[in-house]
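Workshop exercise sheet. Pairs work together: one partner reads the sequence aloud, the other fills in the structure field after running the prediction. Swap roles for the next sheet.
Pair: D.N. / O.F.
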Amino acid sequence: MVRIPASKSHTIRRLLIASLAEGVSRIHYPLDSLDTRSCVAACRALGASVVEHRAAEPLCPNPPDAAGEKLVSWELRGRGAGAGLPVSIDVGNSGTTLFLVLAAAGLGSTPVRFDGDAQIRRRSAAPLLAALAALGLHTESEGGRCPITVRGPWKGGKASIECPTSQYLSALLIAAPLAPLGTLTELEVPLLNERPYVEMTLGYLDAQNVPYEKRRDLSWFRIPGGAVYRSLSGPVPGDFSSAAFPAAAAAVSGGSVRLVGLDRDDCQGDKAFFRVLETMGCEIRWEQSAGSAVLCVERRNPLRGGEFDLNDTPDTLPACAVVAAFARGDTALVNAAHARIKETDRIAVMAAELGKLGVQVSERPDGLVIHGTGGIAKGGRIDSRGDHRVAMAFAAAARGAGGPIEIDGAESAAVTYPGFLELLDAETVRQAEES
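Structure field:
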């Protein structure tokens, strides 16, 4: 039985809203990872007080420290939406932190400078920065990439923004209600990928009783300013994005796994990965055990190929690709061109690295076709390019491959899933030594 860590998407949204809220928020069982700690650092830089509480709780999925204690909650005293002091924020490898906090930083009238690691410096925020500029903010960058400086105030008005990543829109939706009273922000959204993550953000606005208008297809919003976020408390749901990888390991090895800590009614889009597994021949079922929901994944029969639209869930592309390599027949992963603008160009990377293991892959502009022959016959050495989802996908693939797979950059799994490599067994997944 595998206890799944908390959702990164939920954890970062709760941290940011709590840091902008009035009062004290308590976020229980958050994800303790490099990305979420980057968000904590950003919230502190913007003026929030963040205190962590640790305890020796066996059921907490976070990694233990040297004393055996785990992070069980963060307590935040928010700063509201007022102006702060000029600060610099290092977001590390966290694109979610960069994009969501960029807009929030524009609520003040003093400059906030953002930077990050080499991967972050390659990721463009140009559409978001253009929208912020249209709403009255001052922005500075080279080609929309870090380092980026943002300075308010937020004046409102109309902006049009194409969202190859949903994080651009979520950033604007979280910040716009906190603009001054009387400000009106109107957003045209001619392109929106990853719609379920915007619906997640809207769920938080609804919980805060924030007024807004929208079209049903999420192509237009009107948000009045003057809202005040209230403190929020409670446990963070488990992460379906992370759950995909132990599930993939079970699928490729012909085994089974029981996943605990997930909410079957949560709005996370990456739940769709389990429909993909079911279509490919796995048995997927929910059970109850000791009062908790358990998601069971089992593969008894050969996997079969299919065609899957990943527009809402591009983060599942690496996991889908390795499972497809163990299927019989072609598997097409389509409508996911935005997977190219994640931590890496995941379409190109998965095609290249699967090829090193003898898998035939056809790369398309918007996805991949994996020509599966029922398995990966040999091992080899692959380069994850420091992309946590690529690293975890090949770690899962190693459970069923015909030889050991060495993964350069395997340590990047800690960005969202600390302890994942240990979970799969160091005998099966070996981090390549630096050469």
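Discussion prompt: Residues 2-222 form a domain with the UDP-n-acetylglucosamine1-carboxyvinyl-transferase; Chain fold (CATH 3.65.10.10). What would you look at next?
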